[in-house]
């Protein structure tokens, strides 16, 4: 069933290259009226600066300014806050997306190492049987990376590598970013119009 009613989702942004993916995903969910519980890893904040030029001193203020003007609700959780609401299975959300997902975070999730809020929230998705989507961004991949992805895929985790397609005739970087965000939304059954589908 396609989702149009506002829901709550956890979004994780790690230190993998491609922070813009997580920013666009968060913007899109908020623009649809959804609630986003956002977790950014320490390395993720570094990538914000290196890739997007965001020199952040006040993290919560920065996020509120970046994502203001949308009908949805944003809740930021520091990655060290292991007691946050999203660390408990009794707190209801529809699912979690880590976009982009570093190989370190992917490994932590695959091996149940709930040593921070990002990996703990992902572990909650697994134990509660809720949708978990990981968007790894790394190349080349070695055997440990692939084995960890296979382990998670066998547990029902959706692995959507950051591999944008070209059949929809992208004309800009935004088109490529939107394609990847759209593929994530497709896997969560969230209606969107971010790219032209094959046959349209």
UniProtKB/TrEMBL annotation:
The gene is ubiX. GO terms for molecular function: carboxy-lyase activity; flavin prenyltransferase activity. It catalyses: dimethylallyl phosphate + FMNH2 = prenylated FMNH2 + phosphate. This is Flavin prenyltransferase UbiX. The lineage of its organism: Bacteria, Bacillati, Bacillota, Bacilli, Bacillales. FMN binds at residues 15-17, 41, 102-105, 137. Dimethylallyl phosphate binds at residues 167, 183. HAMAP family: ubiX_pad. Keywords: Flavoprotein, FMN, Prenyltransferase, Transferase.
